[in-house]
Amino acid sequence: MSGPRVNSFFLGNSSGVNFSIILSPINEETGKLQLANCSGSKRAGDWNLNVTPGMNTSKVTISLTRNLQLCLPNATDCCTTPLCVVETLQVLACHDSVILAHLLIQAEIYANSSFTGNVSENATVIPNQVFQPLGSCPCDLTAGACDVRCCCDLECTPDLQQLFNESCFTGVFGGDVNPPFDQLCSSQTMEYTPDWFPFLCVQSSLNNTPFLGYFYHGSVSIPGVPPFKIPLQTSPGKLFTGYRQGDPIMTEENECFTIPQQSMAGQCVGNAPVVYLQNFDVKCLTHLASYKEELPHDVRINSGTGDFIQQNVIYRTVTDMGKFITESESLHTAEVLCQNVTFAEDYTFVWKDKNIEQINVTVFLGSLCEGEILTQRFTANFLSLKSTNAAELFGNPGYQVGKPVKAANMNASDTSGSLNIWQPAGRGLCTSATYTPVLFGLDSLSGCILEVGINEDCSLLRGNVTEKLNSLIQATHIGKRDNSSYSDLSDWVEIIRLDPFNSETNVSSGNLKGICPDIPANLNIRLIFADVGAIQGIPQQEILAVQISYSTVIWQFQCGLTCENSISFLPITASVQFIKVPAQPPIPMTRFWINFTEFDCNRNDVCWPQLFYPLTRFYTGEPYSQCLAKGLSLAFLVLLAAIMSNPWFSKLWNSFLV
Amino acid sequence: TSSLREILNNSYQLSSVPLQLLFYVNGIYYTFYFLATLAMIVYKSQVFSYPDDFLGPDLALLFIMAVLEVLRLYLGSKGNLTEEEAPLGLSLVITVGSAILSVYFLVWQTYVLKADVIINAVLLFTYGLESVLKVVAIAAFVS
Which residues contact A646 (CB under 8 A, 6 or more apart)? Predict the structure, then answer.
């Protein structure tokens, strides 16, 4: 039981039974329990006995009746020590002086621990942690007592400390928070001591070490979080001055007009802006699950003069579904979810000078069912009012990056020619490949795969490959500028062709089955261009020369485990490379620059800026601070010498020494 | 001839020649001491880290010591040569202050290098010798 009250039970008939309580019944000499007699009462010392009789059991309660508060010594009616009561009681149940039962109670009661003392206002001064560690004696674990083997414990008396002096704790736990460092004179551990060590070693005590204050102070976060706001689209002032080539087309709400286009990563993004005078033709793959509704076509476009024009939309249904839909390998159930979606959108922007006059949109609708993959097609064309052909560049006759290179076939009656590279389709075979025109400024590499049998004749193979590659080049001349006219020959450069070396003599020797050397399988188109000037600040680029050459490979039939497969693959490629050359000679140097070469460090032996180094910071071979220190000490010495050599100074010196 | 002998007997001159010699040597040595201690304090401030505000007092005490030294040497030299005890006594008092500062640089500095110990010991020895000679000279002047 805990607390000043304890209960017990007396079993049996309690009629005629006397209960009494006796204090300290133990014989102090022998430590044995004294035999008690029934002459006690219900009170003994501070203890009270209470009996509640019942039928067969009686409840016996013994309680302490004194104050258990802790108080000062020599006070009355309270506890002077924390251990307040240590007593032994005996409860007797007697019937006619015969002891029926006795209960032995040993009580150890502590004083109530409510604090009534004074709280000290003195705050412990915590030294600066940077220079004085807070726990200077980590092994001092018990307060008010000596910790064994802890030599830095201040509570240990010297004779106590003498007992364990040889086996103190070492290291930081033992209180050695300042380990000896290398620069101490008494430290013998360093193998390498610098030459000056006997003079510049530290003799002073260990309380100040060089490692004081080497703390990571942490970085302070600047109050005021930078605002992570997306800046609002500032409306360009040029809306009122019209569009220039390359400007995004703006809508009525001052946002960019968007049409889904292909991003750099290849996938289609829905909100790509449309750039003035830049045509595009993109194909986007989508299926029913990820189909997003297009922008409604009632958005009005800023025409460039400040007023807004409506889009003229024409809706049509798709007739040839096969061009758009490829069916995936899913089951065709009768009930398939189909939806009316946009298959293609053709935008035609009619422009004049810097404004857009008209926008005509043709939207092709069709129904897309689940399980089918749709290739959406978005095209945008800028048509000038002056001509119905593809747009003439406004004020920009040179080539623009991304425009197809103009080619002409001067030998044929129909002078228009083309310069193409492969556009593979399907499995990549040359039989199913189409052509795509070479675009200015874009280096490209493409090819297709030719199927060759094992019994292929090598010369026939060469001819076949050469003919296929030549079909890419349907031209003899390439236009210098984008607006080269077919009637003026000076606007065109002739294609320099390096035809493959046709070695007829090697046919017989190299006629092993399955190996053909010198197959001209790679076509290299090199176009050399240059900046020839600028119009309205926009540099104009012209093509100066074109060269077409062939690289040869050795084709070898690829066998599996056995050479039973009859068809092997030969990849043929076409690569386009644009090389930029300076079109003009370097600008002749003016007389000022020729005279000024004295200060040109690359061309002269004497480099004045580097010579006067601390004053002019061109030299980088020596640290600036070192050179400055040397220069200053030199200047100081010169000054000292100048002063001391003055006769006035020697007079002063003599008078000083009396 | 007797006056010549008296002059050669040196009995009229009370100024102490060893003391003057010591002043001269002290002046040169103290210049070296000042530059060396300054250089070492600069070296210590670069190589070691000083606790809060310990470098300032070190440097300040060095400059105070320099000022006291100049004053002390001037007064002592003047007192010795003019055979007056007042400037010499003042110089003796200032020597006590300089000696305390030297003890500071020897023992109570933040980082005491062995070179510090050596030059301060030499300086203290010089002070001690000077003090003895000054007391002797004052005694000679007074009587």
Answer: none
CA distance B120 to chain A (A): 13
Distance CA A632, CA A92 (A): 106
The set of residues, in sequence order, having a beta carbon less than 8 Å from that of A78 and lying 6+ positions away, is A67, A68, A69, A70, A71, A111
Write the CB contacts of A344 (distance below 8 Å, at least 6 apart in sequence).
A318, A324, A363, A364, A376, A377, A378, A379
Beta carbons of A658 and B77 less than 8 Å apart: yes
- The DSSP output letter for A56 is S
Distance, in Å, from the CA atom of A525 to the CA atom of A546, rounded to the nearest integer, reads 7
A332 phi and psi, to 5 degrees? Answer: -100, 95
Find the distance separating the first CA and the last CA of chain B, reported in whole Å.
Answer: 28
For residue B25, being part of any structural domain is answered with yes
CA–CA separation, A544 vs A398, rounded Å? 12
Q: Which chain B residue has the Cα nearest residue A215?
A: B49
Query: B103 lies in a domain?
Result: yes
3-state secondary structure of B128: helix
Tokens of B104: 């500071």
Q: What is the DSSP letter of A566?
A: -
Tokens of A519: 């197959």
Question: Taking each helix axis from N to C terminus, what angle separates B114-142 and B17-47, rounded to the nearest 10 degrees?
Answer: 160
Residue (of A408, A404, A475, A483) closest to A440 by Cα position: A404
Across the strands, what pairs with A1? none
Per-residue burial over B118-136, b = 16 or more CB atoms within 10 Å of its CB, e = otherwise:
ebbeebbebbeebeebbee
At A283 the three-state DSSP class reads strand
Number of domains in chain B: 1
pLDDT digits (tens, 9 = 90+) for A346-357: 889 888 877 888
Q: Which is higher by pLDDT, A549 or A396?
A: A549
Model confidence pTM above 0.80 = no
Q: Which residues 164-193 in chain A show a CB within 8 A of chain B?
A: 183, 185
Contact A181, A191 (CB under 8 A): no
Closest by Cβ to B112, choosing from A128, A202, A213: A202
d(CA A58, CA A604): 123
SS3 assignment, position B8: helix
Provide the 3-class DSSP secondary structure of residue A561: coil
CB B135 within 8 A of CB B127: no
* A244, amino acid identity: R
Beta strands in A242-337 (DSSP E): 261-262, 268-269, 280-287, 301-302, 308-309, 312-317, 325-327
Task: Give the best residue of A132, A197, A658 to mutate against chain B (max B CB count within 10 A).
Answer: A658
pLDDT higher than threshold 70 for residue A221: no
- The answer to whether position B1 is within a domain reads no
Domain that holds residue B133: 15-142
In which residue are the tokens 């292929």 written? A456
DSSP string of A233-281, one letter each residue: -PPPGGGGT---TTPBPBBTTS-B-B--EE-TTSSEETTPBPBTT--EE
Q: Which of A240-249, A566-575, B24-33, B119-128 has the lowest mean pLDDT?
A: A240-249
H runs (alpha helix) in chain B: 2-9, 17-47, 55-82, 85-103, 114-142
Find tokens 């076409």 and name the residue. Answer: A574
Q: Which of A9, A40, A39, A17 is nearest to A95 (CA)?
A: A17
- The confidence score (pLDDT) of residue A237 equals 46
Helix (H, G, I), strand (E, B) or coil at A497: strand
CA dist A542 and A527 (Å) reads: 10
A208 touches chain B (CB under 8 A): yes
* pLDDT digits 0-9 by tens, A475-487: 888 888 888 888 8
Interstrand relation of A261-262 and A268-269 (parallel, antiparallel or unpaired): antiparallel
